[in-house]
Structure formats: C-alpha cells, structure tokens
Amino acid sequence: MSDDQEQLARELAEELRQLRVEDILLNALMTVSAVGYRSLGASDETREKRDLDQVRLAIETMLALTPLLERVVPADLIRDFQASVANLQLAYAKAAGQPGG
Questions:
Q1: Domain spans of the chain?
Q2: What b/e string do you get for 23-47 counting C-beta neighbours within 10 Å, with b at 16 or more?
Q3: Global pTM?
Q4: CB 88 within 8 A of CB 34
Q5: Measured between alpha carbons, how far is residue 66 from residues 18, 29, 31, 54 in Å?
Q6: Residue 101: pLDDT over 70
C-alpha cells in the first residue's frame, strides 16, 4: 500500500470512529426523502422514473426512522422530517389518484 493509500485509510478510520448512529440515520432519511420525491415522477425529467411503490416505501421508512431520532437530534429537525413525510404522503395520494397511478 502506498503512503497516500495508508494516509487515506487512517483518515477514513478516524472518520468512522467519530461517526454516530444518528448521523447515519439522518443521512439515510435525507436520501430516502429525495428518492421518494424523485419517484413521484412529478417533473418532466423524472416522469419516466415514476414508481409509486418506491414512494410508499420511502414514506414507511421515514415514518419508522423519524421517531428513533427524537431523543438525539434537535426538535426542529424532527419537525422538518415530519413535515417532509406529510408532504410526501399528500403528493403520493395525489399521484396515486391520477391516471397511471
């Protein structure tokens, strides 16, 4: 292994030591939310990727993970995720009621 690779490995190991579970869950929630909104197929560029099963799974995942974070992240962040999932639920209901939904 080269010196650069060893240095990179040490830096990665240090980052992993500092990583907390809530950091991973927050990242997962943000990613799941983004994928859920994209899967609605609401824009011209995402219309072909519409997948309401993925939207439903995103909603269920967000509903399951958000309460786990209530003890460890600021309340305003929890409210943001709750608002995001509520908006996604409304958008899902609207999309499911449209032709092809």
A1: 21-96
A2: eebbeebeebbebbbbbbbeeeeee
A3: 0.81
A4: no
A5: 22, 8, 13, 18
A6: no
